[in-house]
Write a structure and sequence with these properties.
This protein has two domains: about 150 residues, HUPs (Rossmann fold), CATH 3.40.50.620; about 130 residues, Riboflavin kinase-like (Elongation Factor Tu (Ef-tu), domain 3), CATH 2.40.30. About 30% of the residues lie in helices and about 25% in strands. The protein has ten helices and twelve strands. Strands 1-4-3-2-5-6 form a six-stranded parallel β-sheet, with helices on both faces. A six-stranded antiparallel β-barrel has the order 7-8-11-10-9-12. Helix 1 links the parallel strand 2 and strand 3. The chain is elongated and about 70 Å long.
Length: about 325
Amino acid sequence: MEVIHLKYPHQLKSPQAAYSLAVGFFDGVHLGHKAVIERAIKIARELNVKSAVMTFDPHPSVVLGARNEKVFYITPLQQKIDTLQALGVDTVFVVNFTSDFAKLLPEDFVQYFIRDLNVKHVTAGFDFSFGSFGKGDMRLMEELSHGDFGVTVVDKQTDSEDKISSTRIRNLLRAGNMEDVRTLLGRAFEVPGIVVHGDKRGRTMGFPTANVQSMEGCFIPATGVYAVKILVQNEWYNGVCNVGYKPTFKNPEDKQLSIEVHIFNFDKNIYGEEVVVGWYKRIRSEQKFDGIDALIAQIEKDKLEAIDYLKALS
């Protein structure tokens, strides 16, 4: 898969390929997004052109100043690209979202980022907007095409409860509801990171853990204990994970969040390794125990519950 980074005004002139393009931010690449992307792939086959996805980086709110808090992504950019590759996309255009780009008139967006890229068909969700202040919608996209490229609008994707959306998934992550998150994503929620040195207390308790420092900008689920899988050196292992502030040992004023994974049937030194944690079920909330013996007894129960749950999935 080819990844092309663009910045307005981009210098990509007269692309050799023609494209069927899915366009959107696509944070999470959830089932709603997949409906858009798979439609674009299908049209690419019908038109005998390449399939492409256009996404934006960073999140528009970072540039437009709509929010003060730090933006956390369901899928950081590289993870999003990896997910799109797994879907079979030929080309990904990553458009640098800048102040100048945000000021583009809808007509200019269509000229520079549709026509100039030799796009033969555009597919987007019903609520996709483009151009300055989001003035452009898919109805305007069709008007601006003048019949030179096709336009497909994918309707709202819902389940039995509501619209499938990134906002809904974030709320579920905040609640630790990983099973519903997995349903809406069509896969387990994953957090990439690197194994770093921790306080090594788990090893003395009989439950050695990999202390995972998450990639910058990742959305971390609610604190608690989870049944997880962890990708280490291209192999998935089952485990149980505590994400939180270790209140049994830590000063309550210490707000350093930790992600610690006890990997089942594993005995390797993996410090410095890049890993991916896949989150499957929240077993319980984080709690403070009266002593180490009570904590060890609870961890053993957590481990057994995680083993049983993950075994049932396979």
